[in-house]
Amino acid sequence: MVFLSLAKSFRRCESLRQTVANTKNAQIHIVVIDTLENIYQNISSSFYDLVIVDECHRSININRKLIFDHFLCPRIGLTATPRKAIAAKGKDISEEDLAILDTYKLFGCETGEPDYQFDLTRGIDEGFLAPYQVLSIETELTKLAREKGVEFSYVLDPDERKRIELDQQKKLMLEQLERKYISEDRCLRIAEEIKTHTEYGEKVLLFGVSQAHCIMLTKALNKVFATSEDETSPRYAEAIISDNNDLNATFKKWFKDIHHKPFIAVSVDIMGTGVDIPCVRYISFAALTKSVGKYVQMLGRGTRLDPKTGKFSFKVLDFVRLCAAMEDNGKGTPKPNIKVVNGKGGGDGGIYEPKGEWFIIDNPDPAHLIQRVYLHGDKIQVIDNIPMEKARALFEEELEKADKPEIVDIKKKVEKDKEYEPSADDVETIKDWAKKPEVYLDEGQLQKVYDFKQGSIWDFFLHALKIKKIPTPKERIEHGFDSYLKTYSFNDDQIHILQDIKDIFAENITQKRRITAQEIFDNPVYMRIIGADYQAVNQKFDNRLPQVFEELQTTFRV
């Protein structure tokens, strides 16, 4: 979206993917910061006259600081949710370390005030943003979970719905609900309330707790709003949670169209930032957060005015009392919206009364599966859900035997010159090939398959051809560790301890297990390797060991 907007005003605007070599004459480079992190050392420090960082609150770690300090030019940070770093009581943290974690200091605002600000209230008061009102809706189960906790001694299998007795009775508070254990009845109640308090066909953005929760909410919503045409996608409600970038892009495109289904989008984080859908008239919360920044980001999805569709205000439907926790009762004076969608109105669905006691469904998040889909125009067909190992083998096997002339030509180029830099057309050709029936995988899915979120489809292409291997997690840890040591002045004793911690962390990562600093020192074997207990090591790092460990993990990029 940024690229398209700037390209209208600047003829020489290029998207930077692998190197500046092919785009060095462009006036503006648009680049994902993860990509820049991989290539910035190959770019002259005086190459840019200005660096602008959007969503800069996401850019506060040691790796990002290395990038910003590399370029000798002014930098501007843009964010709706800046962060301040304040040392915890009793902790002695250097100003240099605090600056890395502080949005203001990282961008030169030493006083803690931005150079320019335009807050939500001012935007509403001056007519640039939509006012809103808050409607708090609490079901009986939600109230019980918030006040006393939900107790249960059995669950139902989500596939066969068989009763499974638990070894002991469980008790979940509201903040624990809808993660591993999903309440089907509560999802239905929320769906009924949404039908009651919205107009049929108007756009609703609903935030859930987990992928499993979003799927259950989507099923409940489609049950409540069901029509005969809702049997295939796009349905009245869709969960936008997939790792498939093309599928997400298609759902987002449909959701932006006020006359096109889905009318309700259910998401965890994907729709929380980086999306611009002015026609949204309802923001619904079915998930809690303690982060003010995340709350503002989610709320902000509804603040865009959209006069062409008659949207001048929006409503918040709060099912978890999140707005009350944020002390938000709404802002501005809501204005009437123009009703542009005809059809069955809201409010006639009644209230779902569950029969018997509340029950809990055990529905784990299927994060280990890759969903392959076929997109063709306005049609979506789910092909299958396959393990990541199978998806990886499929991609590599199909590429090895690919006979499409354009793919064969690119393969010959890289086999002849292992340093070959792809053109934009080359990259698009590979992406198009990967979408064909033989593969059905996109860049986002391959990042998950290869466990390398910074990777591009070109990286995976070279790896599959055995031209250039993707760095293993252990190699990334070693590279990040070396960069970290160059950033700070540690003494020999501290470096020796950090090397031991790094080796322990790397060993656990290779076994697909993450480990905390406390877990390291709770393990007698690891403690013998390091040669000291937690308290002694923490003192050697001036009581900053937790922060040092967190910084290390950030630089490891795994």
TrEMBL record:
<dbReference type="InterPro" id="IPR006935">
    <property type="entry name" value="Helicase/UvrB_N"/>
</dbReference>
<dbReference type="InterPro" id="IPR027417">
    <property type="entry name" value="P-loop_NTPase"/>
</dbReference>
<protein>
    <recommendedName>
        <fullName>Helicase ATP-binding domain-containing protein</fullName>
    </recommendedName>
</protein>
<dbReference type="GO" id="GO:0006304">
    <property type="term" value="P:DNA modification"/>
</dbReference>
<dbReference type="Pfam" id="PF00271">
    <property type="entry name" value="Helicase_C"/>
</dbReference>
<feature type="domain" description="Helicase ATP-binding">
    <location>
        <begin position="1"/>
        <end position="100"/>
    </location>
</feature>
<dbReference type="GO" id="GO:0005829">
    <property type="term" value="C:cytosol"/>
</dbReference>
<dbReference type="InterPro" id="IPR001650">
    <property type="entry name" value="Helicase_C-like"/>
</dbReference>
<dbReference type="Pfam" id="PF08463">
    <property type="entry name" value="EcoEI_R_C"/>
</dbReference>
<dbReference type="GO" id="GO:0005524">
    <property type="term" value="F:ATP binding"/>
</dbReference>
<dbReference type="GO" id="GO:0016787">
    <property type="term" value="F:hydrolase activity"/>
</dbReference>
<dbReference type="InterPro" id="IPR013670">
    <property type="entry name" value="EcoEI_R_C_dom"/>
</dbReference>
<dbReference type="GO" id="GO:0003677">
    <property type="term" value="F:DNA binding"/>
</dbReference>
<dbReference type="Pfam" id="PF04851">
    <property type="entry name" value="ResIII"/>
</dbReference>
<dbReference type="InterPro" id="IPR050742">
    <property type="entry name" value="Helicase_Restrict-Modif_Enz"/>
</dbReference>
<dbReference type="InterPro" id="IPR014001">
    <property type="entry name" value="Helicase_ATP-bd"/>
</dbReference>
